[in-house]
Each structure stands twice: as structure tokens, then as C-alpha cells.
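User: Teach me something about this protein's shape.
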Amino acid sequence: PTVVLPYPGLRTTVPDGTTDWDSFLGGEAEVTLRNLPFDHPLYVLFSSGTTGTPKAMVHRSGGALITHRKELTLHCDVRPRDVVFYFTTCGWMMWNWQVSALSCGATVVLYDGSPVHPHATALFEVAERHAVTLFGTSARYLHGLAADGARPAERYDLSRVRTVTSTGSPLSPSGFSYVYEHIKRDVHLASISGGTDIVGCFMLGVPTLPVYAGEIQRPGLGVDLAAYDEDGRPVVTGPGELVCRQPLPSMPLRFAGDPSFERYLGAYFSTYPGVWRHGDLIEFTAHGGIVVHGRSDATLNPGGVRIGTAEVYRAVESVPEVVESAAVGRKVGPALGSGESSDEEVWLLVVLREGSRLTPELVQRIKGAVREGASPRHVPRVIVSVPGLPRTRSGKPMEIAVSRLVNGRPVENAEVMANPEVLEQIAAALSARADA
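Assistant: First, the predicted structure itself:
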């Protein structure tokens, strides 16, 4: 049945064909518990739609729960009577991950609303009030705090916080420094990465190992993680495709509406038969950690050299006028679809702080920051100021949508965007540049 859950303190009308929470539980009747198999469906999660039509993934009870217990208890040091907080909506898999902390004997703190209302450090006010021990958030939120000059450590008692986790996008080295300098010095900062596809992590923190800025500490326990080149060979140095060479219990049971498993196999196993390809570009470091360079289908390829977008973003963070940016490749040379080879140049779309303008001087400073922080090959050929960037409903940036606009192609899946109106604004900014 469809169960309607009202907001606390509000009365909700229950539409026909649905039931309220109390009725679903059976009122005061005793709840009957049943033993179910490991592969019994637990929930359906939808991918964000950043790379195509959202996938409806059916996850199994045993796989999700055993994975979450492993990650929470062993990788994040969640103990009985801890207080776990993650800023997430129920449309993001981190909500499911967080709720599983109840199985560790921990208390869960849920938050509904904007993380910066009524002020930028509202989440730390929650952490202080509820004596949070694990504070979970996104790299975008931490980078935003740093850009705003927020100093939570000076304002709040965060003495109970042992672990800070960050996900959603790569946390830059400067983001690591910000956490230790202005949130808490004696904390385990764990950048974690995985996906809705496995309702968990491929790589995450290890409380007993050193933390290196810009790196995720290790693959998850039991995860046979590797980086592959285009021919399916392990990459020892340099970036490669994130692959998982052995099955994981939290891989989807199936896709809804995919009885032949055609879409399932095409999504993960079409590139390297029998090996899960996730779609991220990663690199193993000398410390045994991992650096995420961004989505592999959004990587840049100027002059035939493959580079990750995260490298550009890390460099641009040093420019205070830039709130956020999107680096994409614009095809140059023969017309698309002509069959002839073409090159691409890097274009950078930037969202500027209120009161800032993209002057020639600022353009040169941005290019200089990228040249110094990454390499000359990363320097954008063109920089365009836009009012905003497209995001999914779970807040993830949609680089592929930006790439399609820059290359004059229609954008698909606009219905999954939280802010579809920004597409016309970006198109107008690109048109104005072309007419200038």
C-alpha cells in the first residue's frame, strides 16, 4: 500500500487508495514479524539522472543492511548510543544509509529544509544541540562554507563530533584543510564515494589510518576495487575507470521494468564483460588512497589527452569571485556526425558571487589559477558567466547537460532537474557570447 506520512504537528488528508501511518501499523494490534530471505526486496531507489534516464533499482534487504552495518560500524566507527546526522533528503541514498545507523544502536537525527537557513552554519547548531558524533554532509556544502568564511569551531561546541563524512562530489585538498582548521582539529574526516547503484560505498574512511588531503582513504572492506584502461587492463599509475571485479551483496537485485536484465547488464557490464564499470574516473595514490577525478563520461579530452573535471574545479576554488563552475569539452574541427575525427577545447561556465563581473582581468586570474593548480592543458579556452548550473533533485551537478548546451545539442531528462529554468538562461548566455 501507499502510506502517507504527515509532517510532525500537521494534519494530513489521506487521498483515496492510500493509508495513514497508524492504520498501516494496525493501530494497537500487535505487529507480526516474519523471517524473510536475504534477497527479499527492501526498497526501490532511483538514480539521479545525471547521465541518462533514471534507473529504478530494486535493492535486496540483506545486501543493503549488511553493507550499511559494515560501513557505519567499521569504517565510520559508529557505536551504540552515538548520534548520527547526515544532511540528506529521502530522495538520496544517504537517507537510507543514515537510517541503518539504528541497527548500530545509535540515535539518528533527521533534518528537513535548507542547510543555510536561517544562517550558513545552521547544521552545526543542530550538531551542538543534539551532541552529534557523526556529522555527514556534502563537499559542495563544505566548499560553500569555506568560500563564505564561516568559522563553526569558534561558535559551536562540537566536542562530541568524532567523524565528519563528505560525499556527493570530490572534496578538494582545500576542503580538507578547511575542516581541520575551522570545524574541528581532532576529527576523522572521511571523504566517501559510492552510489545509489550499490546503496553504499566503493571507497571510504578508515579510522585507524592517516588522512591525506584530497584522498579517500581506502576501498571498502570486501570491495575488489580497481582502475582499468580502455582495454580492460589495471592502471597502476594515473587515472582509470572505476571497476569492481567481484560481486557485492548490495548490487541491485534487478531494475524495475527490466525482466530480461538487458538494461541492467547494459548499464554496468557492457564495457568490461563480467566486471562492474561504475562510470567514475579514479586514481590510486602512493599512500594506497584514491582520488576521484569526476564522472568518466564527463571527462575532458583536449588534444587527445584525457583529464578529469575535478582537477579544474580544485584549481578554480582559489578564485573567491567564483561560487561554482562546470568544465566541459566543446567539439571543434569537423562537424559532429561527419565520421571524421575532431578535437575538443575546454569551456568553463562560472557562477559568480553577487556583485562580481566577468572582467578580462578576472578571466586571466581564473586561467592563471587553473594553469598553476592543474596544468596548461587544463586551462579553459573560453569562460562564460552564467546565473546558475543545472542540478538533479538530489543536488548533483549535471555536467552532461551543460556539455550538450555548449555543443548546441538538445538536453534530455530536463524533468529530473531541480532547476530546469536554468537551461534557457545558460543558452542565452552562450548565445550572447556568440553574438559578441
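Now, about its shape. Residues 241 and 281 are 5 Å apart (CA to CA). The longest strand covers residues 322-332. If you'd like, I can walk through any region in more detail.
User: That's plenty for now, thanks!
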